[in-house]
Amino acid sequence: MPKYNLTEEQEKKLILREYRALLRALKPKLKPGDKELVRIAFEMAADAHKTMRRKSGEPYILHPLAVARICVEEIGLGVRSTICSLLHDTVEDTDITLDDIERQFGQEIARIVDGLTKIANVIDVNASQQAENFKKILLTLTDDPRVILIKLSDRLHNMRTLESMKREKQLKIASETVYVYSPLAHRMGLYNIKTEMEDLAMKYMEPDTYKEIARKLAETKRERTRYINEFIRPLRDKMEKADFNFEIHGRPKSIHSIWNKMKKKGVSFEEVYDLFAIRVILNSPHEREKEDCWKVYSMVTDEYTPSPERLRDWLSNPKSNGYEALHTTVMGPQGKWVEVQIRTKRMNEIAEKGVAAHWKYKEGAADESRFDKWFHQIREVLQTADNDSVDFLQDFKTSFLAEEIYVYTPKGDVKMLPVGSTSLDFAFSIHSAVGAHCIGAKVNHKLVPLSHKLRSGDQIEIITSNKQKPSEDWLNFVVTTKAKSKIKDALKEEKRKIAEDGKYTVQRKLESMGAGYNSNNIEILADFYKQPSTLDFFYQIATKGIDLKELKDFHVLGDKLEAPKPPKPINEIRPESGSNVTDYTKKDAELIIFGESSDKIMYNLANCCKPIPGDDVFGFVTTGKGLTIHRTNCPNASKLLANYGHRVVKTKWAKNKEISFLTGLNIIGLDDVGVVNKITNLISGEMKINISALSIEANEGIFRGSIKVFVHDKEELDELVHRLKSLNGIHSVDRFDAELS
């Protein structure tokens, strides 16, 4: 990264240039007096941040200016949001108070800035810090969606300038972005921002794959453009003949979405079918929008054969974030699949600017209510949510940031639920009492269990019984936050009733010992039996989980209990048998853990992603197990990094060829004579790699093999994969995480 070296004079010019660009973008929205207000906000922020610099070395004020520009240019917000963006970091980081802002700009702007002022991030004390911030943002979001839009702009600018941050900070911020902010951008209908956030996060979390796909996209750009032009030509002629006012062009695919398709479908870059995508935007009057879109659809499908299961009709049933369009995938020339999106100018603006555009088209009251409904649901959950913040964040993701399905009540009313919802979620969405007494449901007139997953278009009738009450295993199959929190409340209530018996037992025991039944003694006992709360302690006693026989070892002083002294701890920590904890007291420890002396550290290699030397990794401090090493592209990485960023330890591999790591490869190819021989010869003979296990099955001309091998590091593994792929008849070679058997 180039070193920052501007003189004071150049800096002033740069800040002024950015400020003027912001005013130019705002120009169409400025009413008399607005320019003056924006200037006051800018001067207030510039003065407050004047001594501050960003990690890159540039003056801090450039950040609020950039955030304000994203709000105006990319989301389409106006003057008030600009003022809030300029001031969004002042209350937290400078001497300016909310009262100062309210005096100068009024209550509304002060309220939004307060929503944006993150809980003072002195240190990331515990996991729920991030989730707590997030809860606070959401509470304000339901009062004023601009909070979240400015927050997203702030996050987008941080992602764009992530380069100057330390590696572990990059990982934490990128993970958080994928985990919470990009789904939120998607939910607010900001597709461009969502896509850019995902791409930028991938650039830091999986740099090699990112560079590889970017390179392939750049290499194929010319032929893709040529192909798209050839595809568009006959459509353009038809639409011009029919007198449509339209534009039609190719649509770039995001690196992240290509990577997702490659992983999901198990295909190579070349086989991702919608690398080719085009968009038709019609300029149609409101009353003719649907009709025109379908006319264009029939022109496209007359010219090219459509894939019937790839039609997506969001005209009749727009997504809950307001998205409307028709999508179809057709077979173009040279046997290539092409995705075609058809939408009008109004729909396009809503697709690009999301919520902000909604407010502009407020006449469509039905659309408006979709967002209102969503906000209303969030509000409902936030008011009742007293559960653990990390759970809350996870529930919020599955409940509110997932795609949704539309289902019907027996009377034909539509209910919107997140994908993956079950009949029990539906029951709770009607009323919490219906949910609590639900014993089953009829879906499309067929009897189904509580855990039955619903699909769009299902009609559901709930069957209840007064004898039914919620049970612990219900939590395993509901996805909506409302259902989860109501079930947890009911279980807590039930637990309280049972715990009453435990309370009575403890009271009798303590009195017989001559100790007082008071909160202090109860806490000493709960602590001694390692129970998270006194309620759990009483519950365990009532259900015979604890039998209090250790009470005889306690001392009673006056009426106060004193716990027996624990035995002296043994100095050395013995790894659990069978765990792959490696005690590297050797001087050639091959994992360097920053900020700690690496030759004393015990660590595990995570079972979820089985890292080997050379993988991009981070260390994660787990309770009770010391340090666990994960790959940065591990399926659990973004959750760990987003929720528990403070537990991440920077780690990297040092060279050490003595230790081998077990990893596995899946190989698919044509079942040819001698193919097994070729493979084993290459691995053991040529590359001298030890094979731990090998299983191969052939079926109708195709063979699938899985091989477990011991490699020293990622370079050796990459070399092996490369050489296996170049053998004749081998179709694909993929890594999987092998278990020692």
From TrEMBL:
Record's protein name: RelA/SpoT family protein
Family from the record: Belongs to the relA/spoT family.
Signal sequence range: none
Function recorded in the entry: In eubacteria ppGpp (guanosine 3'-diphosphate 5'-diphosphate) is a mediator of the stringent response that coordinates a variety of cellular activities in response to changes in nutritional abundance.
Domain of life: Bacteria
TGS domain span: 403-464
